[in-house]
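Q: What does the assembled structure look like for these inputs?
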Amino acid sequence: MNMPTPLHTQLGVVRRNIVRADAAATEALARFGSATVHEAMGRMGLMKPYMRPIHSAQVSGTAVTVLLHPGDNWMMHVVAEQIRPGDIVVAAITADCSDGYFGDLLATSFMARGAKALVIDAGVRDVRELGAMGFPVWSKAISAKGTIKATLGSVNVPVVCAGALVQPGDAIVADDDGVVVVPAADVERVREAAAKREALEAGKRAQLAAGVLGLDMYAMRGPLEQAGLVYID
Amino acid sequence: MNMPTPLHTQLGVVRRNIVRADAAATEALARFGSATVHEAMGRMGLMKPYMRPIHSAQVSGTAVTVLLHPGDNWMMHVVAEQIRPGDIVVAAITADCSDGYFGDLLATSFMARGAKALVIDAGVRDVRELGAMGFPVWSKAISAKGTIKATLGSVNVPVVCAGALVQPGDAIVADDDGVVVVPAADVERVREAAAKREALEAGKRAQLAAGVLGLDMYAMRGPLEQAGLVYID
Amino acid sequence: MNMPTPLHTQLGVVRRNIVRADAAATEALARFGSATVHEAMGRMGLMKPYMRPIHSAQVSGTAVTVLLHPGDNWMMHVVAEQIRPGDIVVAAITADCSDGYFGDLLATSFMARGAKALVIDAGVRDVRELGAMGFPVWSKAISAKGTIKATLGSVNVPVVCAGALVQPGDAIVADDDGVVVVPAADVERVREAAAKREALEAGKRAQLAAGVLGLDMYAMRGPLEQAGLVYID
Amino acid sequence: MNMPTPLHTQLGVVRRNIVRADAAATEALARFGSATVHEAMGRMGLMKPYMRPIHSAQVSGTAVTVLLHPGDNWMMHVVAEQIRPGDIVVAAITADCSDGYFGDLLATSFMARGAKALVIDAGVRDVRELGAMGFPVWSKAISAKGTIKATLGSVNVPVVCAGALVQPGDAIVADDDGVVVVPAADVERVREAAAKREALEAGKRAQLAAGVLGLDMYAMRGPLEQAGLVYID
Amino acid sequence: MNMPTPLHTQLGVVRRNIVRADAAATEALARFGSATVHEAMGRMGLMKPYMRPIHSAQVSGTAVTVLLHPGDNWMMHVVAEQIRPGDIVVAAITADCSDGYFGDLLATSFMARGAKALVIDAGVRDVRELGAMGFPVWSKAISAKGTIKATLGSVNVPVVCAGALVQPGDAIVADDDGVVVVPAADVERVREAAAKREALEAGKRAQLAAGVLGLDMYAMRGPLEQAGLVYID
Amino acid sequence: MNMPTPLHTQLGVVRRNIVRADAAATEALARFGSATVHEAMGRMGLMKPYMRPIHSAQVSGTAVTVLLHPGDNWMMHVVAEQIRPGDIVVAAITADCSDGYFGDLLATSFMARGAKALVIDAGVRDVRELGAMGFPVWSKAISAKGTIKATLGSVNVPVVCAGALVQPGDAIVADDDGVVVVPAADVERVREAAAKREALEAGKRAQLAAGVLGLDMYAMRGPLEQAGLVYID
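A:
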């Protein structure tokens, strides 16, 4: 089962077995992008907009989580062992920190384990190399500042990353617009809603391109008038 | 039971019955303050330091949570009904917002319901009146900007407030140093650890006041030398 | 007449005669405070919430405006001459700057001219002395950093201060919640609306203190149900 | 005429007829870029530097303005109808907000109406698609966060966008250095000043490339010595 | 001698003997305050304005410096031993951090050693207790977040604190306006310049209070006219 | 000799003869990048991560420094004359400022003098042209805002730039990860340490790519167990 134990008991813990969101449904979320998926969830689940890609990318995957301390990346090596193909590592820090927790060596290791991306609420470095390697990263900062390996954190516990709660196994959808978290149990339902939304948008796009106004396409003129909108010359 | 359902299903939901942390143990946490309680939890559970008191105060209480939308305080009236004496309202917003969600009228209502404080990841207003009323508030901002009442949020769902996960019923300890969240199941254990820590500190304080150095009191000279510390003239 | 000429033609200009908002009506706005006045204006006219009082205060007055350059407070001496009793000086800068443009000497001069307060989109210094003198200031920063006197700005031109457009002669209402700008032509209308709003609030406050819920007082239960709000146990 | 009525009376208003800056002169401003145009205006008219292009671009056009509420993009559909070929939509928000007000559907509609760009003091989304479509956008943030359609704002009223006052019909010049606002009445005069400035710069560039120092080219050595500059070895 | 060795060789070093600025002259700087002292130094030496007092205070003293790592306050105990009566501890961090490095226990120790204040480019906690103890602190943040003791820093090496270079033994002047650093060799010269400046200000204050304008007192009307200032009605 | 005189005596000073770091060793640092060099220095010497390249680049060179005032770029022309081939200009400001101090004309002059790059704790403009010219710039901001030429600063004095102390002649290494300062006396030693570090990384990279875990490669399992790490299923 995937129920969180209280957070404060979880320092120094690595959970090996987690229930991952369905692989195929998670994989299918990538092409919708973070905006459509977030809308399909009822406008929920987004990380804060300071979480940005270091290079343009669009991916989805299942979350393995890691909780680290400021200036200490020891647990990044511990989480590497828990990665399975299709996973996205989601890294949270116990206090604000912009240090460079992750670079080309760790990326080499993560890729060898099958990781699809990293989402980290701190800084990364070797960004040019990461681009050349084609390993997608979303981070709060870019910083050459190195870290130490002194204090235990945890792996695969619930974490708060850039303002969003992430449970191990949740689906992550990330692109140039941001990062959204889909609870594992809802992935299929969200995929369907996103597909519906996208299908609707195709028709709307054609109308708008033809010069139809959103005012008419969405039948907004009545509600706007009722709300009191006044046109003057 | 208190297990969270996935967040995105929870817009438009009010949970009436929540399991609150033990009232006496929660009440007892206040005098330790946020720093000692946070240490007693293994240095976990703190909200980000931008969460500041609008007036100096020190309280503890059980969390009733509310999730609101940017610029919309409709659910503040819904949460008022769920307040029981001894509660602290913890308000989270689905996106960054500094608007003034709360003022003297809502404070009057919250106080009449027995609320001990408000912790809100947004702005408040009427801060002079709130000080005169003696109602403690921790917030991200102070702003006269008003809000609308148009969109549903939820009450007593798990929320992320200033970077910390808060489950309904958790204990909240807030003072001039910040705000810490104690999972309901751990309140008694944390109280004991905090009491021990405080007892130890009293003896340390006396020694330090007498001129004993922390270097000696904590037996740090050996470890520092071993780590390579060099004294030069 | 008070119509703005294009902004870029106005460097190096001092307008001596401005149409000030009605003195009595402006004076009467102070006691309502910025939140009530802002609501009475249809939730418009607020400066951004980074504009904070250096000491708790509540005032209203008519705006004389000054536009300065980063790190240059020359025009503060020019605007002093244009102050009339009851005025509040509103100072804008052509680019972001936190330097200390204003201290106890300028405050002495402003008070001698009858100024009621300063609102400045930059820094001030001598804040302890300003508190002792009882001269209210709202600013973006506190900084000991001094300024030079090298470049012309303007006095009594329209300025953008902390995100709000201020025309010379507009009424300014400032308190611990923030700063609001009332167009000169609307002061009496806004005063009436604010008085009405305040009168309504008195009755509401009594009900809320007696334990009536906002849900009932504002008849929100129907609209909430219609919007889909669900109560669960 | 184009004189602003007081701002607070303007919620819920759409002005259909505005006086646009001369089309040819406005068009001609683009190639000078924001830095040269801003200098030609006496170093005035710039938006704050947080206003950044989502993709490299350089354009000019006439402003149609829209005032929106935090988290609410209803008026974006209203402003679409007021766009004429050559316009740039300038969007201001009544309080700080980073939500994604604009994406590929609205861009499709704006392009069909002839809009040349969007400048928005908030967030946008679908940034990859916007790049593929070739629709230039300057914004404060990128965010997948969706918005609602609940509250009236206004169209073609004076707005404050990123610290700059924009009147409907003003010329906007935007490039990778930022965004500058040219009052409609001054466009021709500014165009001439910018052309002169640019002509002068060509000669200077050649001299500097040949190794002539600015110290000599601008005859600065005398003034520097007079100001007290001392050379030491 | 007090010449800095290269910074990167200085991790893990404690310098015991430093040349402190003259005690009497340093003591005498306090009453001038940071603004006057900074002006007396030619508008140099200020820390950035985010360095704020946790409680109103005005002090001066000689700097003992400490360089710490993010989230690690081990060296605070090492620096305690190097404090002499009249010193102010200046703490710098190798990367941005807002954790609470300092609380009432360390303050007890610092006071027992004769320290007059702490200036720290990070966070502190126990702020209510620090106020009650009367120990002045300037910091970047207030945070209950605890720190570890794992990595060596240095004591009495040159540090950059809030943007200012501080050499061990320099004089520090701190008040509600900010913090200024006076090189040890210049304290007497700066004291004299500050005294002169203050004497001049007394006369100016009297004139301004009597209604004389700065325009006349500083003979600014000529230079302003020459610069092109135009008065219009 | 290269010992700094007190900072406040140095306004209005240009030092012509500085001791530059060894040219060949400085040149050799570029290929290691800022992260490796910073690690080779014991994790010291980095500027704050807000210092970002305006276009992707990787360079090293010897520092010529310039200290400027907010909004005033006069000294940029003075420093141009002091540039020798292989230098990187490091520009510090006496207070926070984001104005555009530098554009294509100054870049033309700097390139003609042999400068390899600019690192500036303020804003720059003409960023598209700078990219086309291939002149690398690291800055705090991009802004079209122009500057004046009114107040003296200094050239080749010690400066604090983005939180790092830079002595004239120090080596600067800058890339997409940030900017690091190497004291002139340490360049050869740092070069050797960086080369060793890089050689070690090549072997590690191969192992990690082959699927070896950092846990095993770095022999972390023992220390992690000793620290109390617990694996659960």
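The longest helix of chain D spans residues 187-209.
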